[in-house]
Hints:
Layout: H1 2-24, H2 47-61, E1 65-66, E2 83-85, E3 101-105, E4 108-112, E5 119-122, E6 127-131, E7 136-138, E8 140-143, E9 149-160, E10 166-173, E11 177-192, E12 196-201, E13 204-212, E14 219-230, E15 234-241, E16 245-260
Parallel strand pairs: 1-5
Antiparallel strand pairs: 2-3, 3-4, 5-6, 6-7, 8-9, 9-16, 10-15, 11-14, 11-16, 12-13, 12-15
Amino acid sequence: MVWRRRSRSMWRRFRTGMAPAHRGGSRSMAETNNLALPLLAPSQAQKHVTVNEALARLDGLTQLVIASASQSLPPATVSDGVVYAVPAGAGAGWAGHDGELAIGSNGGWVFVPPKIGWRGFVADSGAAVVWDGAAWVENAVAVTPNRAHALIESVEFDHVIAAGASSQTSFQIPQYAMVLAVTGRVTAEITGTLTGWELGVAGSSNRYGSGLALAQGSWVIGMSGQPLTYYADTPLLLSATGGDFASGAVRLAVHWFRATPPEL
């Protein structure tokens, strides 16, 4: 009997301790502080509705994968558990929810405002993102209070080699990028009178590799020997050695560090 009375007393104290947090919140219904999970109210009817909504939010926000951060209209069919980052100016069912996360649930949307520092992965762009308080920033490794960003980025592209002594990519290394490495793979055998090829830029044709193989599947890992910053947009240059290119294709990836200044 003593144990049961103490148990009831402990339960009453627990409920009393929770009540001020419910009343003091600014939300229309009681929610947890971090993930905004709805809490059950005393003597609440249909408790399963609240519990299911909480589970839907938890499922969407844990190991956060964002389908898109640029799509401005919701999809015609809502898939349970899918998450979108609502961009500015979104319409239809997302109107008025700029900057929030929209989680598909039971044919509709549950909206959760992200907090500074939340991280996720955007599926349609293939980028890791962090919420800096105003936007989802891709590939940020550090963010300051006034939104200066330190970014580590990798961009991959395919390049078809044209006939001739050299072949320049349409992709350009962006201005102010500090290139750490350029890597690549031969996706279609490189043919011609050449015996090998080099990878670099105009003025330094072998900066990222020389004596490179021609066979499909051959690869290159060109590391920067020291920090090297490009102060103008710069294409990569493939140069034939011992002859000329006839045909072939490569898949290249450029890996760089980039920084942005703080906001006013």
